[in-house]
Amino acid sequence: MKARYQCAADLLDSWRDDVLSGKAPVLYPLGKAPLDRLEIGPGLVVLFGGAPGAGKTAFSMQCTIDALRLTRELRALVCNVEMRAATLLDRQLARLSGVSLSVIRHRRLTAEHADRIDQGLNTLQAIADRLCFLRSPFDLENVAAAADEFHAGLLVLDYIQRIHPPGNHENRRGSLDATMNYLRQFADADVAVIVVSAVGRSKDKHGRNSYDAEGLSLASFRESSELEFGADSAFILASDGGADSPAVTLKHLKDRHGAVKDISLLFDRARQSFSGAQAEPAAERGKLSAAVAQLWQAAEPAADDAEATP
């Protein structure tokens, strides 16, 4: 019979040896600052949310591809219920090549794109045998079976409200509660888990229902408090301006293992790419530097990339 508890005395020696070993927990690097501050690794459930069109799928896939690039032994399983694998690869090719997604999606590549496309394709080819995409049914039983078969160390579930747990549940909230219990079990098996979630509207300062950045919080994760309670860390992508503004904030809402700190990013929608924003406020850079920065951000893309992503 399995014991109902574990006495501290029974684990103290191994725990003490681990603390004194100097061996840090495994975390998968995700590239340049400030994204290197994100902690994704075995045993951790990381929750990303955002309004429709905020870029949460693009962001989670960027994290996944870059983790695979920088950790050669890592293998990843992506469960995306809304986009085909080819569509996700189109987006990553745009990011890695710097050629706009519109050009790639409509297959309007020309000789002038060749070098950049080859570079992007070579990058994807290098990690292709360590990346897989789940086929339907999109439920946790299939996720678990496929992850075991593929030996995946990283799971990406996008988005979680449409990935069903085993069993019958009274409502969607109960289903999500059960889902998070399973995800914690996945993490306890030394798997890294990225969860992408829809968020609900909140009241803005005018009393209207909206996705206004100031109103987004842990309570915004749709339909289940268990999502934010069960995750080790939780973030929401929030626009800092209008729909066309590249400035976004990755709002750091929860972290079990440290202090929360928001991350300022730029989202290049035409190429589905996130990068660190200029940390120094324009007002502190002087008038000429601020003017140059504004002109640079407003500059039109090259002629071959001029058409924005539909």
Instruction: State the order of secondary-structure elements, H for helix, E for strand.
Output: HEHEHHHEHEHEEEHEEEEH
CATH topology description: Rossmann fold
Top-tier CATH class = Alpha Beta
Radius of gyration: 21 Å
Question: Using DSSP, what is the number of strands?
Answer: 11
Computed structural class: alpha/beta
Average pLDDT figure: 86
Please indicate the count of domains: 1
How much helicity do the residues have? Answer: 25-40%
| CATH second-level architecture | 3-Layer(aba) Sandwich
User: How many individual helices?
Assistant: 9
Quick summary:
With 310 residues, the protein is an alpha/beta fold. The protein is 34% helix and 18% strand.
